[in-house]
Amino acid sequence: MYKKLLFILFSVFIGVNNGYTQKISFQLFRVNPCTNITALDTGMYYLVNLEGDAYKSDKGTVWLDNKGTYNLFFPRQRKSSIAPIIITDSVNTHLHYDKRINIKYSIEQGGEAYYGCKGLLNGVHEDVYENGVVQMRGNFKAGAPKDSLTFFYPNGEVYQTVIFFRKKIHIREYDTLSVLSKITHVLDHSYFSPEYNATSYYPNGRVKKIEKVRAKFTRSTEYYPNKKIKNEIKPDSRIDYDEEGNVTAKYTWKNITYGKGVILYTTYEVIKTSFDKQHKKTAMVKYHSMQLGNVLPSFNVNEASYYVYWKQYDKTGNETVLLKNMSRREIVQAGGFIN
């Protein structure tokens, strides 16, 4: 790994081609399930690359600086509803099949409401996948679920059941073999509430993870199949363990939130310290993690947007600086990578 990092540094100092780069155009086409009409989306949306740069659509076209992987966001979204799009050609398009049933915020309804082809939903309604298999089913009254919603995998097996109570929501999730994998208690009547308690399970029924998520912090404990703790997360720290109970890594972080367009980002400055089985420090990385609306940073240093430093320590404690003040973009442009 360290040889690769040194190669990155060498590549960057050799130089990166800063010549003229032709803009790449992108267009989104959407299929209306109510009319089966395909049309160019001329509304507002954003493509966001792995570095967090947001590119806004302009009269049906987004002009990009580079090829690569992008997430597509519509205004006020914090999570993309479309799978990542890989831009590979100078002119690129994407065909998106809209859902027959959509959830929108309604001033008239005083909150979230479900809409179909003819407006607010009433009675039993279903949405389907492109292959005709039922994707979701629910019973509605004036756009609100009367009691529950059921979501399905493309193979027809139940993926999720959502039961609505007056002031909370209970969600049960299943794997593709119909084995219960997670139970979530949402502490609000909104399906998209950021506050919930959840328990995840292994296929044998043993607890895999316990989470307490609030708007401004997360507490969780994840377990190995042998019931030993795998990691613990507190509001500003995380500790990782191996299956023998030895500490392998510690994380601490602080965050600065800022706006970029209509998309809300959180940028975390994270310090990761790694240890060997003798509890000696082997490496320390200080990096920036940019997240969309998340209350936690990414714990994968490969996903960092910026590296303040990356240090290595030998068995005697001597320090070697491998990286210092480098952005992910500089590393990618140099043809390097970290793993």
Q: In what range is the share of β-strand residues? A: over 45%
Class inferred from helices and paired strands: mainly beta
Q: What is the N-to-C succession of helices and strands? A: HEEEEEEEEEEEEEEEEEEEEEEEEEEEH
Q: Please, how many helices?
A: 2
State the separation between the terminal residues, measured CA to CA: 6 Å
Mean pLDDT: 84
| Poorly predicted tracts of residues | 1-20
Report on the structure:
The chain has 339 residues and is mainly beta. Among the domains are: 22-98, Sandwich (Immunoglobulin-like); 235-339, no CATH class. It is built from two helices and 27 strands. The strands form four sheets. A 16-stranded antiparallel β-sheet has the order 12-13-14-15-16-17-18-19-20-21-22-23-24-25-26-27. Strands 1, 2, 5 and 8 form a four-stranded mixed β-sheet that branches. A four-stranded antiparallel β-sheet has the order 4-3-6-7, with no helix packed on it. Strand 20 and strand 21 form a beta hairpin. The radius of gyration is 23 Å and the shape is globular.
